[in-house]
Amino acid sequence: LDQVLRAIEDFGAAILLDPQFADAYYNRGFAHYQQARQDKAHAEMAIDDFDQAIRLVPNHAEAYVVRADAYNHLEQWQKVIDNLNEAIRLDPRADDYLTRGEAYYGLGRHQQAVADFSEAVRLNPQLVWAYTRRSRSYGSMGEVQKAMADADQAIRLNPQFWFAYKERGIAYDNLGQLEGAIAAFDQAFQIEPTTLGTAIYLYIARGDAYRRLGQAQKAIADLEEVIKLNPQLGLGEAYASRALAYTLLGKDVEAQQDIARAVKLGVDEHPSAKRQWDFTVLKKDFEELKKRRGG
Fold first, then answer.
1. CA dihedral defined by 186, 191, 195, 198, rounded to 10 degrees?
2. Rounded CA gap, 220 and 105, in Å?
3. Are 144 and 174 in contact (CB under 8 A)?
4. Burial state string for 127-142 with b = 16 or more CB within 10 A and e = fewer than 16
5. Which of 208, 211, 169 is nearest to 186 (CA)?
6. Residue 45 in 3-state DSSP?
7. What's the pLDDT tens digit per position in 178-204?
8. Rounded distance, CA 133 to CA 107, Å?
9. Number of C-beta neighbours around residue 62 at 10 A
């Protein structure tokens, strides 16, 4: 961290000596981008420096790439796409198609996302992330068999890649094969059991699968792990799913409390969300589950 901050100061000094020094702007921008993981304000500073580098060297492909990464950090998807259009025009690379595909996915433009992931795979057939991202996009388009095939290919390429098992689990889930989904999520947990983001993804997905299998206690155990972590994303979804699990057990008071918590939090869906949580539908589900069990 101290080295990055020193680099920012050193490149700033170089720019003061020579305001036309494009590489100094690029390198300071890159240092700001590295710092953006701790402070998003540095992403904006990085973008300003890349603007200057590109002004001085309009065909600076790498400046377009890292400026796209900075916009990606800010979730400004269209600007990611605009920058990578230029980078790809200058120097087409598999990683740039991958990142642009992720931006298209962020905008819900799944066909274009699939096209970019496919081009990334053509340029680099070993690029595991491209298969998993295409799997996710196919799943969003309802092309579940293609989603499963891509997840399986990612696992063949890297059997230790937890995200591929997560995508395989979602594909099984979409096929209604909940036991297969849970097994895939279990494998993902065995590979990457401790990272916060990983845990939230998997507890929510596996907990929801357990709930829909009717294994309410196991569902609640997984969803309570998310609630303990108190994440910014996924907490409302965990309460919503736990509410339905409580309903299966006849714990209607606890279910109503969780519905109220979920409504208060809003629909802060985690990216692993299988369903779009509409709380009118959630309350309807609650009433229907009560009727089914005669409650």
1. -50
2. 31
3. yes
4. bbbbbbbbbbbbbbee
5. 169
6. helix
7. 999 999 999 999 987 667 777 888 999
8. 14
9. 15
